[in-house]
Amino acid sequence: MFELTVNGTKHQVDVVPEMPLLWVLRDELGITSPKYGCGIAQCGACTVQIDGAAVRSCQARMADVAGKAITTLEAVGNGKLHPVQEAWIEHQVPQCGYCQAGQIIQAIALLKTIPKPSDKDIDVVMSGNLCRCGTYERIRGAIHAAAEKMGGK
Amino acid sequence: MRKTILIALTLASSSIVTLTGLVLAKEESKDALPLGSISRAEGLEAWKRIEAVVTHPRCANCHVDARAIPIWTPAGESKSRIHGMNIRGGESRIGAETVPCSTCHVTSKLPNPPAPAPLHAGIDWQLAPVEFIWFGKSGSEICAQLKDSKRNGGRDAAGLVEHLKHDASLSGFIPRAWAPGTGRTPPPGTFEDHVRDMALWGAAGQPCPD
């Protein structure tokens, strides 16, 4: 039995230590924003925050995340929309939407590290998050807009 | 601001690691052998086996220069290529400036998953310090570097052996090179063989090929 905190709520899950966090979130806890894309950290669709850092949840195994604080897209705005989510809507970024939860979590991580990113910064940091709909131009625009909203702080 | 703090913290922790290495280098390793107890010829034989390990892609691919571009040798291939996804280790060598290595190479002591999933280790994934360049270097260049305290973390021969053992105690990168997960090739021999060879080489006075 493992304990973990997801979006501020403590949960106990009875799973094998090797089970990826992504499985725990989706199949055990019914939290479905992180998506299964590749299972090998090549697409970024499963990205969540673990103790505040963006991590591919398909690679984080239960034994390693027990006791840690997990945040998924459902809670990044603390009850309202996060500025990145607002910018995402304003720029109509999602098309099929499958990769977008991971994209937004990664974009939040980018803005924590680089509050006013250049196009190159965005391309470098977001390169591990793939979008088959090709929304990269919109992602870039939304990240610039979110940086403005957040005051570059 | 946060970026600056993160990088500063990372560099500070790198200094702590270096200082720890200096301290360890002064400790006698139980596995180290007395200097002079092994002949130069035996030491050179041991070096040949060490060279096969340190030039193996599993070990050399993260010992890269200041550009901090990690190298991939995909499972089933022998040709090296640069790490995909624009990944750069940065000055921090852990990717703190852009995407931390641990975003995908999650810190874990559990066995490595099969290729092509990323490798894991019990310590946070990182490039080797910039002084320790192995990728693209010849065996004799690496040999000269390994016995140079300015380019090996301030370690003497016993300190190098102790470094291997300390890394193993953390389920670090070195022993896990021999357990890289299904589909990936490990370096020759075993981790224990490598520790023994480093002790033999050290006891022979760390001879390098001409």
Automatic annotation (TrEMBL), chain A:
<dbReference type="GO" id="GO:0016491">
    <property type="term" value="F:oxidoreductase activity"/>
</dbReference>
<dbReference type="InterPro" id="IPR036010">
    <property type="entry name" value="2Fe-2S_ferredoxin-like_sf"/>
</dbReference>
<keyword id="KW-0411">Iron-sulfur</keyword>
<keyword id="KW-0479">Metal-binding</keyword>
<keyword id="KW-0001">2Fe-2S</keyword>
<keyword id="KW-0408">Iron</keyword>
<dbReference type="GO" id="GO:0051537">
    <property type="term" value="F:2 iron, 2 sulfur cluster binding"/>
</dbReference>
<dbReference type="InterPro" id="IPR036884">
    <property type="entry name" value="2Fe-2S-bd_dom_sf"/>
</dbReference>
<dbReference type="InterPro" id="IPR012675">
    <property type="entry name" value="Beta-grasp_dom_sf"/>
</dbReference>
<dbReference type="InterPro" id="IPR001041">
    <property type="entry name" value="2Fe-2S_ferredoxin-type"/>
</dbReference>
<keyword id="KW-0560">Oxidoreductase</keyword>
<dbReference type="InterPro" id="IPR002888">
    <property type="entry name" value="2Fe-2S-bd"/>
</dbReference>
<dbReference type="Pfam" id="PF01799">
    <property type="entry name" value="Fer2_2"/>
</dbReference>
<dbReference type="InterPro" id="IPR051452">
    <property type="entry name" value="Diverse_Oxidoreductases"/>
</dbReference>
<feature type="domain" description="2Fe-2S ferredoxin-type">
    <location>
        <begin position="1"/>
        <end position="76"/>
    </location>
</feature>
<dbReference type="InterPro" id="IPR006058">
    <property type="entry name" value="2Fe2S_fd_BS"/>
</dbReference>
<dbReference type="GO" id="GO:0046872">
    <property type="term" value="F:metal ion binding"/>
</dbReference>
<dbReference type="Pfam" id="PF00111">
    <property type="entry name" value="Fer2"/>
</dbReference>
<protein>
    <submittedName>
        <fullName>Isoquinoline 1-oxidoreductase subunit alpha</fullName>
    </submittedName>
</protein>
Automatic annotation (TrEMBL), chain B:
<feature type="signal peptide">
    <location>
        <begin position="1"/>
        <end position="25"/>
    </location>
</feature>
<keyword id="KW-0732">Signal</keyword>
<protein>
    <recommendedName>
        <fullName>Cytochrome c domain-containing protein</fullName>
    </recommendedName>
</protein>
<dbReference type="InterPro" id="IPR036280">
    <property type="entry name" value="Multihaem_cyt_sf"/>
</dbReference>
